[in-house]
Amino acid sequence: MRRDLFAAIALVPLVSACASTGGGVAAPTRPVTVREPAKLPPRAARLQMMPGLENVVGVDADALGRQFGQARLDVWEGDARKLQYSGQACVLDIYLYPVEGYKEPIATYVDARRASDGREVDRAACVAALRGG
Predict the structure, then answer these.
(1) Rounded CA gap, 39 and 133, in Å?
(2) Is residue 111, in this structure, part of any structural domain at all?
(3) 13 — alpha (psi -120 to 50), left (phi > 0) or beta?
(4) Is the pLDDT of residue 18 over 80?
(5) What is the pLDDT of residues 55-99, one digit of tens each?
(6) How many independent structural domains does the chain possess?
(7) What is the DSSP string of the chain?
């Protein structure tokens, strides 16, 4: 009898920990405020200048569209933009940022990889392959 009573008492904390509180989500203790991101002034961007990227780095999204066609992805993150172009040879990510003296964000950095395994490939060779040349 004593053993059963001890076992029952030992199970009380475990059973109470599993008890439901109604399935609702607890309200936060303070109201949550969502603010618009601060509009930052254009920063001095460092352009990734490399042979083979002359007509890619330093141009805007419209010029990139004329070279590569419709972007596979067009992602905005704050004031930055990423355009992604892909083909059989590679995937090309082009990053555009606002730069002082330019009306629209311009391409400042390019990254290239193989679609099959994500391994890095030569950026200029990827640009040439996606242009069809």
Answers:
(1) 40
(2) yes
(3) alpha
(4) no
(5) 999 999 999 999 999 999 999 998 899 999 999 999 999 999 998
(6) 1
(7) -HHHHHHHHHHHHHHHHH----SPPPPPSS-----PPP-PPPB-PPP---TT-TTTTT-BHHHHHHHH-S-SEEEEETTEEEEEEE-SS-EEEEEEE-BTT-SS-EEEEEEEE-TTT--B--HHHHHHHHHT-
* Host domain of residue 96: 61-131
The two structure tokens encoding residue 5: 């009573």
Residue 92 lies in a domain: yes
Work out the end-to-end distance of the chain between its first and last CA atoms, rounded to an integer number of angstroms: 88
In-domain check, residue 48: no
Say whether pLDDT at 27 is over 60: no
| Residue 22, in any domain of the structure | no
Beta-carbon count within 10 A of 7 CB: 9
